[in-house]
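FYI - complex with flavin mononucleotide, inputs then prediction.
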Amino acid sequence: MTQSLADMRRDYTRDGLAEEQAPAEPFALFEQWFAEAVKTEQAPVEANAMTLATVDAEGRPHCRVLLLKGLDARGFTFFTNYQSAKGQQLLANPFAAMTFFWPALERQVRIEGRVEKVTAKESDDYYQVRPLGSRLGAWASPQSQVIADRQALQDLLEATRARFADSQPECPEHWGGYRLLPERLEFWQGRASRLHDRLNYRLIAGIWQRERLAP
Ligand SMILES: Cc1cc2nc3c(=O)[nH]c(=O)nc-3n(C[C@H](O)[C@H](O)[C@H](O)COP(=O)(O)O)c2cc1C
């Protein structure tokens, strides 16, 4: 097993990332790469999957996969349960990092910054366009808490269904969006012989500075 892992090696030759292709500010480049990922990755729906890292009150890191659900000039939005483990961690430490990996394109984007809750209206607007099952699930699942077994979850869902039998579920207060306001974005393009391209954008006094990092 260890030997076969050591032998797993792939050379990256698909593309490059030169300074001339990289705009002065990073959002346009992210949007371009994202559109290409949606077109190219095997399951387009997963192009918006990213790993979100948070740090708890004891300084220990935790990461998990989430779906990016919004992007604008302010930042990168995802939705979750505010009482979940990640919600507790963001309460203790509002800084987070997200990583996108688009293997077909041999690309990675790393984003770091402060996280804030979106407005209740933004959460509600997104909640209302979700399928009914997801809307009920947001009420039914005490995300990150220990539950007895699968049946316990089923029971919670049935109780939620009964509760909203005659009405549409509204967005729960414990569920909603967070927006990561980026201070750093790094675009990584795999290159031959591990001499990859890394363009790093840092927000300094409100202005994006771009630099190249060694691979
Ligand atoms: C592809 C994929 C997409 C996911 N999308 C979300 C999401 O958008 N929001 C969410 O709360 N959890 C999502 N999850 C589940 C999270 O990875 C995680 O299990 C959950 O948020 C609880 O994390 P926590 O206990 O660290 O708070 C997704 C998992 C996968 C594998």
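Residues 82 and 88 are 7 Å apart (CA to CA). The pocket of flavin mononucleotide is lined by residues 49, 62, 64-67, 78-81, 84-86, 143-144 (CB under 6 Å).
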